[in-house]
Amino acid sequence: MRAILCHEYGPADKLQIGELDSPEVKGSGVKVRVKAAGLNFPDTLIIEGKYQLKPQMPFAPGGEMAGEVLEVGEKVSRFKPGDRVMGLTGYGAFAEEIVAPEGQLIPIPDAMSDEEAASFSMVYGTSYHALKQRANIQEGEKLLVLGASGGVGLATVELGKAMGAHVIAAASSQAKLDVAKEAGADELINYTEENLKDAVKSRARQGVDVVYDPVGGDFTEQALRCMNWNGRHLIVGFAAGDIPQIPANLPLLKGCSVVGVFWGNFTMKEPETNMQNIMELLKLYGQGKIRPRVSEVHPFEDYVKALNGLSERRATGKIVLKVAD
Fold first, then answer.
1. Are 5 and 18 spatial neighbours (Cβ–Cβ below 8 Å)?
2. Is the pLDDT of residue 28 over 80?
3. Which CATH class is domain 2-120+292-322?
4. Which end is more exposed in the chain, N or C (fewer Cβ atoms within 10 Å of the end residue's Cβ)?
């Protein structure tokens, strides 16, 4: 089978398309013919050796996919050949076939396309866990979303609205903010033209109750200075590249919490709660309250362009690799 392979750490142009043996299926494994693979920021980190997960080389990156079941192990009870499934893989999804544990796969609703399915689990799973379990967001609270036009950012805008929050979207250009507005944002901040702290204060005089921060860098401290009393600042990632050093007196003075969000660990430590979250997300999808925004679909051979679009933060919504028809 064909796969996009990492033989050495580096940028996307170091990857090569090569051949791997079809993976063996046993136990609770499910072999899937990959039709579409969703790109996420960890994919850009894992190929450069900057991610906590470091597979043995050569490996195929790709942590999220949608496809069709080809074969199941003897312990599998939920799926059969021909079923459409989506799910997380950690790595390996940039290939024509993959074997994933049964518990990591979800049936794809009939109305959902392969491209949407490959864009669903990680962004909505991360954002819903962040808002529900980590922030315990309440109806009417003010939610500031940094990087609001990216995959997790747009998902958070949609979910924030679905959960009754007043959503303030922040992004680096008007074009990106237009996308956030379409997703339901109540107010917009262009943080290349406005100081983030001043802009938030002009829109939320007492500060915001929840900050969703997948960006990091200088924006983290600015956002932390905008917190309301009993606020929750969610640390989701560091797309800006720099891990911020937060003055420890700020949470003290603000009476707020700085809360880590590591959805990958959550799915392993609390699998039943995570599956309940996914079922609730699929219900929201069925109600039309959330829908993955797939901004780009690239042929398998255009993986360099696709990954660079993500690493250079040009994407609005999700980028998808089309692996098979």
1. yes
2. yes
3. alpha beta
4. C
What is the distance between the alpha carbons of residues 125 and 156, in angstroms, rounded to a whole number?
Answer: 10
Cis peptide before 299 (omega within 30 of 0): no
Distance of CA 217 to the CA centre of its chain: 19
Please identify which residue in the block is written with the tokens 């089978």. Answer: 1
Structure-derived torsion over alpha carbons of residues 159, 283, 322, 171, reported in degrees to the nearest 10: -10
pTM, full prediction? 0.92
Joined together, the tokens standing for residue 156 give: 């958070």
Q: Report the C-alpha gap between 319 and 12 in whole angstroms.
A: 15
Whole-angstrom Cα distance, residue 323 to residue 32?
12
Domain ranges of the chain: 2-120+292-322, 124-264
Span 65-124, pLDDT tens digits: 999 999 999 999 999 999 999 999 999 999 999 999 999 999 999 999 999 999 999 999
Please identify, in words, the CATH class of the domain defined by 124-264. Answer: alpha beta
